[in-house]
Amino acid sequence: MSPTLPRDMLGRSALLSVDEAQNILKRRLPGIRIGSETVSLHRSLGRITAQPVVAPEDLPPHPRSTMDGFAVRAADTFGATETMPAYLTVTGEVRMGEFPATGPESGCCYRIATGGLLPPGTDSVIMLEHTVRLDDTMIEVNRSIGGGTNVIGRGDDIARGAEALPAHRRISPRDLGLLAGLGIDEIRVFRRVRVGILATGDEIVAPGESPPPGKIRNINTIALEGLIREMGQSATDYGIVADNREVFDRRLQKALAENDLVIFSGSSSVGSRDLGEQVLSELDDPGILVHGVAVKPGKPVIIAAHGNKLLFGLPGHPVSALVCFDLFIRKSIETLAGLDDPRPRGRRVRGTLMRPLNSAAGRRDYVRVRLEESTDGVKVYPILAKSGAISSLSRAHGYLIIGESSQGIEQYARVTVELFD
Predict the structure, then answer these.
(1) What confidence score (pLDDT) does residue 12 get?
(2) Boundaries of every domain in the chain
(3) What is the pLDDT of residues 292-332, one digit of tens each?
(4) pTM for the predicted model, two decimal places
(5) CB of 274 within 8 A of CB of 200?
(6) Domain 348-419's class?
(7) What pLDDT shows up at residue 369?
(8) Over the chain, what HEC string results?
(9) How far is CA 89 from CA 64, 146, 178, in A?
(10) Cystine design at 265: which of 74, 180, 314, 336 (Cβ 3.0–4.6 Å)?
């Protein structure tokens, strides 16, 4: 059965702060793990490494030139200046894709292009710009260079046995290039997190239907699916569930059995919200963790756990549901997926608030805003719409946060905006 939740003086479930709710969830997440699988390099973009990737060889495997010029012995350029140049005989050329069997003798050099393999006996490359061609077989060198100049040595990029990628890292296109360079064509990654989604309420119809009076289209499922797939994870739609406990319970159990995490969104009716609470309150190990958070929008959110699975009951209003996704579900999915990225998520911009905003003390507000560039800097305009107004998210560039200790923000105050994309 669910643990005893905090109550207010009237016996109602007391609202937790956003931080308290997130901390409860954070304490639960470490005990939940999903498996891993091996995928080809071509299918690994965006996946999370399940173990460190170790370089199987030196990269590069042979010293290479980093400039167009001449492969030389650095000692042959000693003391060379524009007024007292050194003279070298050109006795060969390094062709791309070939490894020269022999190198130039002392006092001689080979032509070499960027990326060419350094011939035996040479240790540096003198740039074309620092030479003067006298004829087809002789160059004048007007600069002295040291050993290793304009050369990347064997293993200078990454040495054999070194960690190429750590575990718990999202694989980027740049990482793919490194792995390909090391000859790695398969990699062990965490499997995708499986997320089941249900929409509840007698008033919900499919997006393609024309809703009669009293009915609304199913906005939440398609939006939540998009967010999950944007994260590179797997989402399954379990359809619209009527306000019927037996049907809801059966559909929820099926989603739980087939997924790592289940989301259901309620409708605007009280009955649907009560139904979700009733069913989740009967789950054990440990059941409902959070019911109600001091946040606007999104106050009625429910967070529960059942064995190795997480469940989230979101408000039916689309904006409330998507705010709760960002506050609680996104980090949960990232943790289950094995991601351990210390970098702050998203981008932020500073701007000037163009109208005052009021807020209730003790509650955290997430206010959608649109931005406008001007000669005076970025102007921030709040989009004042109710939580059911999905167009407010489509029109918004991001949101600003009014903290629990604040009762609002004055007009023309400098604010930080979290960007959506």
Answers:
(1) 44
(2) 18-35+192-336, 37-59+170-190, 64-152, 348-419
(3) 999 998 899 999 998 889 999 999 888 889 999 999 999 99
(4) 0.79
(5) no
(6) mainly beta
(7) 93
(8) CCCCCCECCCCCECCECHHHHHHHHHHHHHHCCCCEEEEEHHHCCCCEECCCEECCCCECCCCEECCCEEEECHHHHCCCCCCCCEEEEEEEECCCCCCCCCCCCCCEEEEECCCCECCCCCCEEEEHHHEEEEECCEEEECCCCCCCCCEECCCCCECCCCEEECCCCECCHHHHHHHHHCCCCEEEEECCCEEEEEEECCCEECCCCCCCCCCEECCHHHHHHHHHHHCCCEEEEEEEECCCHHHHHHHHHHHHHHCCEEEEECCCCHHHHHHHHHHHHCCCCEEEEEECECEECCCCCEEEEECCEEEEEECCCHHHHHHHHHHHHHHHHHHHCCCCCCCCCCCEEEEEECCCEECCCCCEEEEEEEEEEECCEEEEEECCCCCCCCHHHHHCCEEEEECCCCCEECCCCEEEEEECC
(9) 21, 19, 38
(10) 314
Question: What pLDDT sits at residue 11?
Answer: 44
Tokens for 382? 């709040």
Residue 29 pLDDT: 87
Determine if the peptide bond prior to 211 is cis (ω within 30°): no
| CATH 3.40.980.10, applies to 18-35+192-336 | yes
Cα three-residue angle 305-216-279, rounded to 5 degrees: 25
Low-confidence ranges of the chain (pLDDT < 50): 1, 9-12, 267-273
Residue-level pLDDT at 346 = 66
CA 129 – CA 238 distance, rounded (Å):
67
Strand pairing report for 377-382 and 124-127: unpaired
Rounded Cα–Cα distance for residues 200 and 387 (Å):
17
pLDDT for residue 343: 59
User: Residue 118 is which amino acid?
Assistant: L
pLDDT score, position 9:
41
Residue 361: the pLDDT is: 86
Q: What is the dihedral angle through the alpha carbons of 247, 323, 361, 21, rounded to the nearest 10 degrees? A: 60
CATH no. for 37-59+170-190 = 3.90.105.10
Pick the CATH number of 64-152 from 3.40.50.80, 2.170.190.11, 3.40.50.1820, 3.40.50.12370: 2.170.190.11
Would strands 194-200 and 53-54 be described as parallel, antiparallel, or unpaired? unpaired
Q: How far is CA 185 from the centre of its chain?
A: 23
